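Example 201.
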Amino acid sequence: MNRKTVALICVVWAAYVAGASSTACNDALSSCPRGYLYNPHSMSCFKISTQEKNWDDAKAACQSVGDRLAVFDSLETISWAKHMRKTHQDWIPYIDNYLWIGGRDFHGRWQWEGNIRKDIVVADWREDQPDNHKGAPQDCIGLFGKSGELQWNDVTCSSALINIIFIKLCDIFKLLPSDGLQGFLAESVRGEITSSLFGLS
Ligand SMILES: [Ca+2]
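Predicted structure in complex with calcium ion:
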């Protein structure tokens, strides 16, 4: 395979508020970092990194600055990214590139990487993918850019691609009460847990 330009699409996941509200998370929602595009469907911010890296190095590069590889876990976000690719000046130069995102085959299950891996439920595989082409272990998800509408292809993880970086700005963790113990919500802004909010009855 020719060396693909791998764009690291950095996504800033501004928040999963999940019905709760908090000052820090609301503040995070109000602004994406410079150079990131806000995705209203997932309340997150995305950016393409033009550095060419294999999947593991792309993931590490994201983590080193508190970001993540992009998570496209809804039809709305998948459609949004395709629209941005066609219309936004910062993304158009990479219209024909492969782009890493944060999905991977972990021990036979396609999942989004992260502290807590989540099974990929909504997918946008290109026709005949995933295929482990010619028997090669293709365990990482690349967005097929060239005339491919950014549909997904399983790609050898060692390939050097540009990437979509996903920065998770804000997240809400709900710890459910059990056996009389009080639950609580904690919030995380760009990976740093900043506070506990309140108890749940
Ligand atoms: Ca493939």
